[in-house]
Specification:
Shape: globular
Oligomer: single chain
Bound molecules: glutathione
CATH topology of the largest domain: Glutathione S-transferase Yfyf (Class Pi), Chain A, domain 2
Low-confidence stretches: none
Mean pLDDT: 98
Order of helices and strands: EHEHEEHHHHHHHH
Radius of gyration: 17 Å
Largest sheet: 4 strands, mixed
Distance between the termini: 28 Å
CATH class of the largest domain: Mainly Alpha
Length: 215
């Protein structure tokens, strides 16, 4: 049985994982879910992913892995080439820190269920949700821009000249920002790195509009 990716085209955590699978040259079956329709809240899906979130990676033996960063690190350990984390501890710490800036400090605050909650509990309309989303992107992208532009460890990509975990997160977050039309020009280094990543077939193939369930 092939690897199966349970995911959603517009989900940034899914985009991260698709790009990792593509960089590793791995084929997978694509299983789409519509988040707004509650397709990840069914008993069948909750048996795969107890949080009812995407992505979930179904392994060849029918077992499941959840949490995009944990899945990507598992892929990197089981299929080491090309490496998505540097070989030195300092480099790994930097790449993980850049990744967590996005994965821990932006994504959870702007997730669909948070935006829904803002609407349901506080009456936040689309404009208010956009302001919320943009605020949390800007707070961390400003800091990320400072780190990336000020560090000699930054290369063509976030860390040196080969894509790492941090680039998977950055690329997916830039796509996610398009949901609210957030322009990139305020962050020239992020913008440059995104453009370099977008030239790579593994990233292009992972981009939301290029998925079978894209609408
Ligand atoms: N930390 C988790 C987050 C997963 C997650 O929140 N995925 C989003 C899509 S990007 C989701 O399923 N959202 C559904 C919702 O918010 O109800 C990961 O990295 O896998």
């Amino acid at each position: 049985m092939a690897l199966k990716l349970h995911n959603f085209f517009r989900s940034s955590t899914s985009t991260r994982l698709r790009a990792a699978l593509n960089l590793k040259g791995l084929d997978y079956d694509y299983v789409p879910y519509v988040l707004r329709d509650g397709e990840t809240r069914t008993a069948d899906y909750l048996a795969k992913n107890p949080q009812g979130l995407v992505p979930t990676l179904e392994r060849e033996d029918g077992t499941f892995l959840t949490q995009s960063l944990a899945i990507i690190e598992w892929l990197d350990e089981t299929r080491p080439e090309p490496a998505l984390l540097p070989s030195d501890p300092d480099g790994r710490a930097r790449v993980r820190a850049l990744s967590y800036m996005i994965a821990c400090e932006i994504h959870p605050l702007n997730n669909l269920r948070v935006l829904f909650r803002l609407g349901d509990q506080f009456g936040a309309d689309e404009e208010a949700q956009k302001a919320w989303f943009t605020h949390w992107v800007a707070v961390t992208f400003d800091a990320l821009e400072n780190e990336l532009s000020g560090s000699r460890a930054t290369g063509r990509y976030c860390h040196g000249d080969t894509p790492t975990l941090a680039d998977l997160c950055l690329y997916a977050q830039v796509w996610n920002n398009r949901r609210f039309d957030i322009p990139l020009d305020t962050w020239p280094t992020i913008s440059r790195i995104y453009a370099a990543l977008d030239e790579l077939p593994a990233f292009q193939k992972a981009a939301p509009p290029n998925q079978p369930d894209a609408v």
